[in-house]
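Q: Here's a chain of 202 amino acids. Please give me its 3D structure as tokens.
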Amino acid sequence: MLLAIVASGVYVLDQITKYVIVSTMSEGDTVPFVGELLQLHYVKNSGAAFSLGEGMTWIFSIVATAVAVFIVVFARRIRSVGWAILFGLLLGGNLGNLTDRLFREPSFAQGHVIDFLQLQAFPAIFNIADVSIVSSMGLFIILTLRGVGLDGTRASATFPTAVESTPAAVSSTEPTDPAGVYPRTTEDGTTQVDAAPTDTPK
């Protein structure tokens, strides 16, 4: 459920922001958004995230579809909140860009993705879906380093906490001899050795 909520939220936010950009800006326009740090720069991307692999849109469409199907099938195995958020971010971002590739111009499965976010210190132009996908990769690294499994448990080494003692070692207060004799100290300070008691038939 958490995975579906996160994925839906990312997808809706991605599609709404793209709709606003397409409706209010012309391709190539640049508008300051957060001073000089972040600006809106409307471009159409035929490649993967951050404009990588341009001209291979149909390949990315196939890969994105396969990833989405895998996540949906795999989701039943997830019992960790962290992993649910991770796959939700990945699924939502993947579906956001996949929608563009399937239904935007120039043709089905070869549509161009709408990118519009540009940081001053980062040359690539990206969108909300790209941010979500990259965030899921960062969360993947954190969960892996912390040893968090899909079921929510954390891997840890197991060490023995106590040394088991034999009943004889616990109950015996006097040293014993392999021959079956028991030394004891008498009142005058001398040591006397008694033979081990034996059961004799009556």
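Q: Can you summarize the key feature?
A: Confidence is low (pLDDT under 50) at residues 157-174.
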